[in-house]
């Protein structure tokens, strides 16, 4: 059994060190954050304290909850370095200078316990250089853990073990990074830049140089080198703006000083006066005055940098890519003119460079693909991209140009790097044999299950899968996992199947977002046609399906990740339990588009706050809590925040690593099977007309301050009518079904209102709320 990490020390409170400390605290583990003593001032811990204070104000937040910050204890390396003896893991995240790191290690060697892991967050310095002159014990306890910025949100950690590293020590750190910090580990070799930054920096340099050489605009370059290649929607120049224009020369300098002579990277290194000028004038990207793109506040227009003149001009979006070139990689590369030329400049160089690094920077193609997908948010890894164009095609074109063909391409021939054999995804090894794509112990993924089985039930919007051990998974698979009548139909079909053949149901999918809520586009189609009976039937059908889940004779566990909004959030509220990924963003957001929650969310939130014991007795404190959250469309920015908002219960589970969510949700569901009894139906005593008046008075005050629009008052009143029980008063008992009737009536009144319809259409067209 791997020894547990119960306390961590992070040395270095810069952006990376502080972010690593925050993520450790997010996992519920105490962490000691140390930095230097400042030259001025009386507070010797000011640097580390300041880092924590800054993180509490940062957006996106490094902490998943402000409570997590209390687990970070601050200090300085002059007065508190001896406290590393209390810790099971020491993370060094100081300046990238070998001499300073080695001096720190010499001190740590004398203070830490044997077996306490020490790791460096270096991105460039080889492990062998770092441990030079250290004892055998220190070398056994040392490894590299290379996190990506921001540490909370980036899932990749590259880990380098040295030839002296103790396997048990490395496994202790890897287990903690995986299960507690939520990262997927990629094993890298002890080479400069490891995997992701070495390929990523090369890719960006190639793309910049080729765009300038070939006379492309930044918009054209981002169009060609962006989505067609599976690159984030920012595109290449947009990505540089995001990470920082000033970071590029720093990475280039670092790699140039450590890469072996003859590495193709050196062919990309050149003077870039335009970039130097941008940095000197403060145009360092989004964190500065702008970068290759910037927003002019005076004219409220987006500007782009002209690569030829160095001057900004209004953004000029290029024409759509012709034919299939936007979706077909082979078509993109075959396109004549600047489109195909630029695409080949990027892909030919980047993919051959990645292929060259198999065996040198990583043992296999899977590690390289994972590093680029997790570290640079590529949709496809380099070898998945090669498969999309054909390994033989890439090799032949390189040979035609008189360029070296990497050994792994020769080994592949015309065979793909990935295949599915007997329901198992496999990859091509450097020896030319296929091997199963590995999964960490305990990881269960629906994508693997789907390769070897067929759904029990399926339609265009949802499917039901047997995930083993008597558990089934209900998967949504619409765009943004929007919920529609077919999802509702499959829920109704699934319940008798599960009752007769299985033990429990997990609501789970592996898309980026659990569910963005009801399909508003379909609803607006019916609204536009005046099909009001159809709209009301859809609302009523959703209410009944959610009730059927809630009162099913078996446990229902929801396992959300990403957005869980509106109807998606209401699924969580109707489940017996939730096992949420830590990065779950949940809330009832309907009021933002002029609606009210329509599938039972109001009653569930009232019931939870009533039973919580966290508010004073009486109807108004509970009403106020629910009204504030729903009327302002509050969204929890993490699963921890969702607990504070009562969207999740106190005993609902949180999984840090997305890869482990299904296994954890299954375990949660199975733990509820023995002796399972469906919940009792709640009843409510609500505040009636007087409570409704009180809630409306609060909104009216916001209106007077200009913080709420005229129509916000109307929407808030409809919500208040539901939450206060309509015509009921304190002596009346309001049933769950009565509350659903009020909810449905308020929803229909809202959806018939042209002002709500304007809000919905605006949201669908722009992705932004309309304040009318």
Outline the structure in words.
With 772 residues, the chain is an alpha/beta fold. The chain has four domains: 180 residues, NAD(P)-binding Rossmann-like Domain (Rossmann fold); 225 residues, N-(1-d-carboxylethyl)-l-norvaline Dehydrogenase, domain 2 (Orthogonal Bundle); 189 residues, 2-enoyl-CoA Hydratase, Chain A, domain 1; 138 residues, no CATH class. It has 30 helices and 25 strands. The strands form six sheets. Strands 3-2-1-4-5-6-7-8 form an eight-stranded mixed beta sheet, sandwiched between helices. A seven-stranded mixed beta sheet has the order 15-16-17-18-19-21-23, sandwiched between helices. Strands 9-10-11 form a three-stranded antiparallel beta sheet. Strand 6 and strand 7 form a beta hairpin. The longest helix is centred in the middle third of the chain and has 19 residues. The chain is globular, with a radius of gyration of 28 Å.
How many alpha or pi helices?
30
Radius of gyration: 28 Å
What is the total domain count? Answer: 4
Low-confidence stretches are: none
Distance between the termini: 60 Å
What's the mean pLDDT score? 96
The first-level CATH class name of the largest domain: Mainly Alpha
What do we call the CATH topology of the largest domain?
Answer: N-(1-d-carboxylethyl)-l-norvaline Dehydrogenase, domain 2
User: What is the molecular shape?
Assistant: globular
* Percentage beta strand: 5-15%
**Count of distinct strands:** 25
Q: Please tell me the CATH architecture of the largest domain by its name.
A: Orthogonal Bundle
Class by helix and strand content?
Answer: alpha/beta
Largest sheet: 8 strands, mixed
């Amino acid at each position: 059994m791997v020894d547990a990490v119960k306390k961590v020390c992070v040395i270095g409170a810069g952006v990376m060190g502080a972010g690593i400390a925050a993520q450790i605290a997010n996992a519920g583990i105490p962490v000691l954050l140390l930095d230097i003593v400042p030259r001025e001032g009386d507070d010797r811990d000011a640097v580390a304290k300041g880092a924590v204070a800054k993180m509490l104000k940062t957006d996106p937040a490094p902490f998943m909850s402000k409570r997590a910050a209390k687990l970070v204890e601050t200090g300085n390396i002059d007065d508190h370095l001896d406290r590393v003896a209390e810790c099971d893991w020491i993370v060094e995240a100081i300046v990238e200078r070998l001499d300073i790191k080695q001096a720190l290690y010499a001190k740590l060697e004398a203070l830490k316990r044997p077996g306490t892991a020490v790791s460096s967050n270096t991105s460039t310095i080889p492990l062998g250089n770092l441990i030079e002159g250290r004892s055998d014990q220190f070398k056994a306890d040392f490894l590299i853990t290379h996190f990506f910025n921001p540490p909370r949100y980036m899932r990749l950690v590259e880990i380098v073990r040295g030839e002296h590293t103790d396997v048990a020590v490395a496994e202790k750190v890897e287990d903690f990074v995986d299960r507690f910090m939520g990262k997927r580990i990629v094993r890298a070799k002890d080479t400069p830049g490891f995997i992701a930054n070495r390929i990523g920096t090369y890719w960006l340099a190639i793309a910049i140089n080729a765009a300038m050489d070939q006379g492309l605009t930044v918009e054209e370059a981002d169009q060609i080198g962006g989505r067609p290649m599976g690159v984030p929607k920012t595109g290449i120049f947009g990505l540089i703006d995001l990470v920082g224009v000033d970071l590029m020369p720093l990475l280039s300098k670092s790699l140039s000083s450590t890469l072996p002579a003859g590495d193709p990277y050196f062919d990309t290194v050149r003077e870039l006066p335009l970039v130097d000028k941008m940095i000197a004038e403060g145009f360092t990207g989004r964190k500065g005055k702008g970068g290759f793109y910037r927003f002019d506040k005076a004219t409220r227009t987006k500007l782009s940098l002209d690569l030829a003149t160095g001057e900004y001009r209004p953004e000029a979006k290029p024409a759509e890519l012709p034919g299939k070139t936007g979706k077909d990689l082979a078509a993109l590369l075959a396109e004549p003119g600047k489109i195909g030329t630029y695409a080949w400049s990027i892909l030919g160089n980047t993919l051959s460079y990645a292929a060259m690094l198999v065996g040198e920077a990583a043992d296999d193609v899977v590690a390289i693909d994972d590093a680029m997908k997790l570290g640079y948010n590529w949709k496809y890894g380099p070898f998945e991209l090669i498969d999309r164009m054909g390994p033989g095609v890439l090799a032949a074109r390189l040979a035609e140009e008189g360029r070296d063909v990497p050994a792994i391409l020769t080994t592949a021939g015309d065979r793909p790097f990935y295949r599915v054999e007997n329901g198992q995804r496999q990859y091509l090894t450097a020896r030319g044999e296929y091997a199963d794509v590995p999964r960490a112990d305990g990881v269960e993924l629906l994508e693997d299950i789907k390769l070897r089985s067929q759904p029990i039930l399926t339609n265009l919007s949802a499917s039901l899968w047997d995930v083993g051990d008597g558990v089934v998974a209900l998967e949504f698979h619409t765009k943004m996992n929007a919920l529609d009548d077919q999802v509702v139909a499959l829920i109704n079909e699934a319940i008798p199947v599960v009752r007769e053949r299985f033990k429990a149901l997990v609501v789970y999918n592996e898309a980026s977002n659990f569910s963005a809520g009801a399909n508003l586009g379909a609803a607006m189609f019916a609204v536009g046609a005046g099909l009001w009976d159809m709209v009301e039937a859809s609302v009523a059908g959703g209410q009944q399906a959610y009730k059927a889940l809630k009162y099913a004779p078996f446990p229902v566990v929801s396992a959300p990740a990403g957005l869980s909004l509106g109807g998606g959030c209401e699924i969580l509220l109707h489940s017996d339990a939730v096992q949420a990924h830590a990065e779950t963003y949940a809330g009832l957001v309907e009021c933002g588009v002029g609606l009210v929650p329509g599938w039972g969310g109001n009653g569930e939130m009232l019931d939870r706050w009533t039973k919580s014991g966290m508010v004073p007795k009486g109807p108004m404190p509970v009403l106020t809590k629910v009204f504030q959250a729903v009327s302002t469309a509050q969204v929890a920015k993490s699963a921890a925040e969702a607990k504070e908002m009562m969207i999740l219960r106190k005993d609902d589970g949180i999984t840090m690593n997305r890869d482990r969510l299904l296994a954890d949700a299954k375990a949660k569901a199975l733990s509820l099977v023995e002796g399972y009894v469906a919940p009792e139906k709640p009843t409510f005593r609500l505040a009636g007309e007087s409570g409704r008046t009180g809630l409306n008075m609060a909104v009216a005050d916001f209106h007077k301050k200009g913080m709420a629009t005229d129509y916000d008052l109307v929407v808030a009143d409809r919500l208040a009518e539901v939450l206060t029980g309509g015509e009921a008063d304190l002596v009346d008992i309001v049933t769950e079904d009565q509350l659903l009737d009020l909810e449905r009536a308020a929803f229909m009144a809202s959806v018939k209102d042209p002002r709500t319809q304007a809000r919905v259409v605006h949201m669908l067209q722009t992705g932004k709320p309309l304040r009318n």
